[in-house]
Amino acid sequence: MEPAMNPALLPDASGKLAGRPLEEWNAAYVKVENYFHALRIRNKPLLGQLVLRVLERAQRRAPNEPDRSATQLAAEEMDHLVTEWFSEVLQNPPTKADQTLSTRGRLALLLADMPGKWQEQFLRPGPWPQAFVSAMRESFLQAGPDFQISKMVPRPFDLGPIATLTNLGKIPYFGIIFIWTLFALLLIVIFWLTH
After folding, report:
1. DSSP 150
2. What is the dihedral of CA 157, 159, 160, 161, to 10 degrees?
3. Per-residue pLDDT tens digits for 128-150
4. How many helices (H) does the chain have, and how many strands (E)?
5. What is the pLDDT of residues 22-76, one digit of tens each?
6. How far apart are CA 18 and CA 62, in angstroms?
7. Burial of 58 (0-12, 13-18, 19+ CB in 10 A)
8. DSSP string, 101-130
9. pTM
10. Nearest 5°: phi and psi at 156?
11. Please, are residues 42 and 115 in contact by the beta-carbon 8 Å criterion?
């Protein structure tokens, strides 16, 4: 009989999994699950399968990268898995220069209402239903133009009328003192006339 899971991915006698404590893998599980929740994957069996697939990929890398945490490895594998899938569905190969495939792909998922209509297609290998592929590709094109780097030049603060009051004379605070004195005299005159 075949084992239900790969024996290399089961905890060893010390209670570690791929050389890491189980608490680290639990934290990684929660992060990956939260990411898929953010993509509105609500089907529990599908969600569990997707999380385990990501963690298996991270566990294979873990022995070769002891300086990285399980959460970091899982996050990278999750991003790679999702980006590879977007590349296949959208027929848009990822490049080093274009870092927006993952971002625009996630936006296309939501615009095409993948979580509502085609949740079972998420991260599944092809072939996919033609309606799903068409909706994803149309949404990907609508996801917006390529991002451009812009430069914002700082502008001086506009302090409004308070700035003009301080520039009334050669002494910076003379204008403010003069205005407050006039205001106080006005209040005294009003008090004197009403009493």
Report:
1. -
2. -150
3. 878 878 888 777 665 455 556 77
4. 8, 2
5. 888 888 899 999 988 888 888 888 888 889 888 898 888 888 888 888 888 888 8
6. 6
7. buried
8. HHHHHHHHHHHTTHHHH-GGGTTPPSP--H
9. 0.59
10. -70, 150
11. yes
Q: Taking Cα atoms as reference points, which of 43, 38, 63, 51 lies closest to residue 117?
A: 43
Instruction: Count the neighbouring beta carbons within 10 Å of the beta carbon of residue 70.
Output: 26
Q: Distance of CA 10 to CAs 18, 55, 59, Å?
A: 8, 12, 10
Task: Tell me how far apart the alpha carbons of residues 42 and 91 are, in angstroms, rounded to a whole number.
Answer: 26
Rounded Cα distance between 193 and 195, Å, is 6
- Report the 10 Å Cβ neighbour count for 67: 5
CA distance 10 to 64: 17
Amino acid residing at 10: L
